[in-house]
Design brief:
This protein is α/β, with parallel strands linked by helices. It has two domains: 4-117, Rossmann fold (3-Layer(aba) Sandwich), CATH 3.40.50.2300; 123-179, Orthogonal Bundle (Arc Repressor Mutant, subunit A). The chain is built from eight helices and five strands. The protein has a five-stranded parallel sheet, with helices on both faces. The N and C termini lie far apart (44 Å). The model has no long low-confidence stretch (mean pLDDT 89).
Length: 180
């Protein structure tokens, strides 16, 4: 199941979305009141679906899509002026006010899209990624989510698969480990 992150400046909007999703059996991973909080949550979450209620004072949906669009499906729910200000084709839009059934249908669609985009790794590929994360954790003194985030960001920036980067990390470790 995809992780769902809700963001919005209004406590009432976030609470309403959380209740709607919970009533339909969808768990909310995080609820964020600011762009900074949302960026931190997405870095921990790694992938999933983001619902933005209205606008956030310190981040634009276009910027969010630019930075996280490869890992997250983004739904912006807002008034026409908020929707028009968002130009990114990576952000899905839903005009407010809208019925809860429309929000749930959109979340279902985005969850399915997200699931289809997830890489399907073999057992060997998963083990390769886990081994590379352990190397980064030991070498750099970081925790597992940070190691995963670093690997994911490097792979995205360099247009490569995460498993290819994991193999590169392990080769580098093998080379430097034998030279010590």
């Amino acid at each position: 199941m995809s992780r769902i992150v809700i963001a919005g400046a209004s406590d009432a909007s976030r609470a309403q979305l959380s209740r709607l999703l919970a009533a339909s059996g969808n768990a909310v991973f995080r609820s964020c009141a600011s762009g900074g909080e949302l960026r931190r949550a997405l870095s921990v979450c790694e992938d999933g679906v983001v619902l933005i209620a209205g606008s956030l004072p310190d981040i634009l949906p276009n910027d969010l899509a630019q930075d996280f669009g490869d890992s997250f499906q983004i739904l912006l729910i807002g008034r026409p002026d908020v929707l028009e200000a968002c130009e990114s084709p990576r952000v899905f839009r839903l005009a407010y006010p809208c019925p809860g059934s429309a929000v749930l249908a959109a979340v279902e669609m985005l969850t399915q899209l997200h699931t289809m985009r997830l890489p399907h790794r073999s057992r060997e590929e998963k083990a390769l990624v886990e081994d590379a994360k352990r190397v980064l954790m030991l070498r750099d003194g970081i925790d597992e989510p940070e190691a995963h985030r670093r690997m994911q960001q490097y792979a995205m920036r360099n247009n490569m698969k995460m498993t290819d980067y994991a193999a590169m990390v392990l080769r580098d470790e093998e080379l430097t480990g034998t030279q010590k």
